[in-house]
Amino acid sequence: MGIEFGMFDLGMLSSIATLRQIELVTMDDPVKMEQGFTAFDACSGKKFDDECVTAYETYKCGQEKAPDLVTKIVQRNLDNGSVYSPPAPCVPPRRTCWLTDSIPCQSDVLENSP
Q1: Superkingdom, according to UniProt (predicted)?
Q2: Cβ 74 vs Cβ 31: under 8 Å
Q3: pLDDT, tens digit, for every residue of 66-106?
Q4: Which residues are 104's β-sheet partners?
């Protein structure tokens, strides 16, 4: 969800996009906006070796610190029609090379040379 909403990029929370989302869903309530910024400060520094774990822990922290705010951000952005690539590279199709799908992989090219 964070990638689709533009709030999660390069393995971590995108500060500008996330702060903008907080502003958009709380602009009519300064107290909730301040609570959102406080939750952002508490949750934005999460960083683990695995991007998925980082995303999960960041989202979990947001749910613990400001559950109503996170729910509003999700509801506001859900099904926004954008399509993004996954956060980690896809595994290539079986028996094809990583750089191109048109060349079959060979374990040792020199082995087959004349």
Answers
A1: Eukaryota
A2: no
A3: 999 988 988 887 765 554 545 555 554 444 444 555 555 55
A4: 96
